[in-house]
Amino acid sequence: MPQTVLDFDALKKAIPHRFPFLLIDKVTITEPDKSAVGIKCVSGNEPFFQGHFPEHAIMPGVLIVESMAQVACALFLSKPEAKNKLAFFMGMEEIKFRKPVVPGDRLELKVEILQMRARFGKAKGEAFVDGQLTTEATFTFAIVDKDSAQ
12, 17, 52, 122: which is the annotated catalytic residue? Predict the structure, then answer.
């Protein structure tokens, strides 16, 4: 099955996130509507490291979960029929932080869709650094029309 790769420019066309909140660098859609793998190269220049923590930089766990959600977002919103859609978090559960993520790490963000309905979905995300699981979470999301997202 052919894979679709979204580089940084393609991601900016697919999802609405922008600096400083576009947290992924590349996404490979491994199975349409089902799974994708994202890459986040963690730099010491990230704005969140100024306060988390200046003397011992650790990527905030909530931003790792957000990165996984952005991969899921790219999986769905990169399709032509989703051009005028947005994806919103609805809930997060079963979150586990197993290992800190620090500057210089390359996060591999694996997302699998567990359930998808017309406008709601549930996904499982896992983040790895050098093959070691750092973070895992299950999250639900809604896909809505941009015009009705008020």
Answer: 52
Residue 52 appears among annotated catalytic residues: yes
SS3 per residue for 5-25: EECHHHHHHHCCCCCCCCCCC
Mean pLDDT of the 135-148 span: 93
Q: Rounded CA gap, 144 and 85, in Å?
A: 5
The string of pLDDT tens digits covering residues 23-69 is 999 999 999 999 999 999 999 999 999 999 989 999 999 999 999 99
Please write the tens of the pLDDT for every residue from 127-139.
Answer: 999 999 999 999 9
Percent of the chain with pLDDT over 90: 85
Pick the CATH number of 4-148 from 3.20.20.140, 3.10.129.10, 1.20.1070.10, 3.40.50.9100: 3.10.129.10
